[in-house]
Amino acid sequence: MDQMFFGRRAVLAGATGLAATGLAMPAVHAQATAGLKIGVIAVLTGPAAALGTHLRDGWMLGMKHLDNKLGGVVTESLVIDDELRPDVAVTKVRAALERDKVDVMVGVVFSNVLAAVMRPITENGTFLIGTNAGPSTFAGRGCNPNFFTTSYNNDQVHSVMGQAAQDAGYRRVFVMTPNYQAGRDAVAGFKSRFKGEVVDEVYVPLTQLDFSPELAKIAASRPDAIFTFMPGGLGVNLVRQYRQAGLANIPFLSTFTVDESTLPAQGEAAEGFLAASVWAPNMDNEQNRRFVHDFEGQFNYIPASYAAQSYDAAMLLNSAVGKVRGSLTDKDAFRAAIQAADFNSLRGNFKFGTNHYPVQDFWLCKVEKRADGKFQTATVKKVLENDVDPYAAECRMR
Amino acid sequence: MLLLLLQGLNGLQLGILLFLVAAGLTLVFGVMDFINLAHGVQYMLGAYLAAFFASLTGSFWLALLFALPSALAFGLLLEWLVFRHLYDRDHLSQVLATFGVILFLNEGVKALWGSAPLQVPMPALLSGGFEIMPGLQYPIYRIAILGAGLATAGLLWLVVERTKVGMLVRAGATNAPMVAALGVDIRRLFMGVFGFGAMLAGFAGVMAAPILSVEPGMGDNLLILAFVVIVIGGIGSIRGAFLAALMVGLIETLGKSLMPDLMRLFMDPSSARQTGAALASMLIYIAMAAILAVRPAGLFPVRAA
Amino acid sequence: MRRDLPAIAFLLLLAMAPFIGFGEGHQLTLLARSMIFGIGAVSLALLVGGAGLASLGHAAMLGFGAYAVVVLDDAGITSMAIVLPVAMLAAAGFALLTGVIAIRTSGVHFIMITLAFGQMAYFTAASLSAYGGDDGYTLYGRTEVFGTRLLENRLAFHYVCLGALTFTWGLCRLLLASRFGRVLRAARENELRVQAVGFSPYPYRLVAYVIAGALGGLAGVLLANSAEFIAPSYLSWQRSGELLFMVILGGLGGLHGAMIGALVFMGLEEWLPHLLGEHWRLVFGPLLILSVLFLRGGLVGLPASLRGIGRG
Description:
The complex is a heterotrimer. By secondary structure, chain A is an alpha/beta fold. Chain A has eleven helices and 14 strands. Chain A has helices at residues 49-65, 86-98, 111-123, 154-167, 181-193, 212-221, 233-244, 263-266, 286-299, 305-323, 331-340, and strands at 36-42, 69-70, 73-81, 104-107, 127-130, 147-149, 172-178, 197-204, 225-228, 252-254, 274-277, 351-352, 358-369, 375-387. In chain A, strands 7, 8, 9, 10, 11, 12, 13 and 14 form an eight-stranded mixed β-sheet that branches. In chain A, strand 2 (69-70) and strand 3 form a beta hairpin. In chain A, helix 1 packs parallel to helix 10 (305-323). Chain C has a domain at 27-237. In chain C, strands 1-2 form a two-stranded antiparallel sheet. In chain C, helix 2 crosses helix 11, helix 3 packs antiparallel against helix 4 (80-102) and helix 4 (80-102) crosses helix 9. Chain C is globular, with a radius of gyration of 19 Å.
């Protein structure tokens, strides 16, 4: 129905006052050479922009290694800043689908943005390859034939830390997360594998600056370890204040709190702290060595998992487009080609489960100082092997 | 009990930090009747300048030494470029224009220093801490913040209450046209107050940099808290800002640690924790609404109604 | 009547927009969003321009409307005949409850107290885990109008939004022209004089605040349907600030300023990133400053300013 009213734009537009507002965007992007167009959704506004930058740069490096071709087809990448505002993301995504005729969407850092753009993208018949956000909603009942992710189900990562705490024999653990959905999910995920006593659960506001009240509580309850999930700036503040309060002798188990996106600001304060992940820069395989080396060379910082997962998405799409010989018109064939996951992941072991979430290994990682004085996470041991996420059974792919 | 005392101390410390930001805001607002939304980004700029100079010189003290005059200079530059053209405009125009400044500076620091958070090393002299309870160190640096804040507050009080400049500032806050009519160069007074306010905000930013993450937009939420402080305290009142800042700091800190326990009396533990945390976030706004409902001009109103 | 010409011309232009080059889906989406924020801005302009009450909590009214859609959707109720009145009543109710206290203050204190109430609404929305909490809530279908899925059609939705905007503008215009509006404006100019002639401005302001709240609820219903997704960020103080900026940018010289302000604000946000790339705000910020410095009276004051320059 939207096709009925294609206007003779630009001709009359100049005459109307509306032109000044840019609604009549000349179709600069639409006239690219025949090829593929990929929309890269990343948050590039506000404090979370650091994560979006990782995600975008990881994708860009992938495209550079592929000579800007996916499966041999010339490809253009269109970066979309979701501003971490769901309604803004929906508007921009619709414009990219309808105006720019984007063929595949990749990216998305945060699950609330993913939830918002899921319908507009998939109902348009377009494929969405998530490269970070992996809420359990879309792993279980809400699984979608046009949605894949190269990351994980969030719950899995938290449960890995639960398992690690269990393995280490900790009996009393103090749990602290921000007071929002993902924070509550983190606690549930941790508890799903940790069988000991949770001394206290503390929820802090997302705008928290000073953690000293919570640090006093931690010291008072003397746990064997703490488990926390504090993304972005929250994690920077917590880690530094935790160290300054002299609590670092209590093991610091975390998810999405110490990684390469925050380590530049955490530095020595985070040394020895533990994280759960599917990937770390030190993973020893040929493609990963090349990725980390070239990434640092080009962007001058150490990549985090956001970058690695986006790079993997580029390689995944490269293999899938190659399999269908550059033609995305047969959706079923393309879907099967993605599902095959016939590429060399930076993680080594990678395949898709029935719900289009990866079945993969999960690692316990530790922050360490590199020879050049910079900090990165490094794998300590494999905690779960070929782990299928707990919601996969609920998924009935239509 | 010790825990409660400790939380009280933490609340005071947050309050002091808030006061440093709010003091400049309330002066500018009170003396010039000027709403400066950009005050929060001036705090952010202080932190970024500290990070920048610290990476150049490797020393926190040198960074502090360089960051303060830079913050002052930048404040004066902004005043000259933008703000002085807005003094005779209505509040809403000031809000829109200073919002433009926020957008520009938030994006500016991102363009210059990247979007990743930065760190400022803690000065060696003030790192370390002393054991305040078994297993918990109270960092000396936090005591230093407390001290620096109290010293600044005392100094401000002296200047405002006991000097000629302070008298003009107070007079300006009460009745600016009258002061101008008495032959005082009100432009220079305004410029001075403005630059000083910017420097105070920058100072707060420098002090916060070693414990907080230095990132774009870090001033936005603090700005809102600072506005809450000056409105509760009464616009233009340094004394009011000081007391209100401590009050907000205490409410915020104690509320967070006590609310969940309080809610546990009424509901099961897990929902008590979540509702308690949500209520704790609202607490200062509830307090502000309550205070304004009873005293619409704040606790220590300066301007004659 | 002449005063209304710019507004009527603007609404007519919007009515023709789909046929003069703005008919593509994403353009309609953006236009619809602009009109929805236009409704929010016009209702806010009733407060700011009419009653001198600058609210920094207006996004909460839109939020109440949007969350009414969600709560009813979750309960299986998707008929516009129920959703719309419930949403507007909910927003009006919130406005009444908070207005009773907020209207007692004025000036900056009013700005701050409305901010406080807005923040309370925001934190409440973020804690509603039944409706997704901070992650938000996906609507799997738009609100139905007389049992039809009329709103799913973008062109139909365009005209529904236009109708709502016209209604909002017309209502606010009539209100301001009435005796009620004259009291409001007189109280803004000189409160003492109004009191001297025996009027208490308080009930008038409260009624205006409640009406603006209900209209905000209307915008919220449309916003939820436009994005098919609701999140607490709709209620954030930044969003309230944006609504206020739309009003100021457009100018307080008439209600149509708010509509134009909304369209231009949304348009610039869409267009500048394409033109300038990632750091477009380095230009957007100074543009706002320049518009304040040189466009006294906002965008609607532009013709007058230009004439002023012409006369030299």
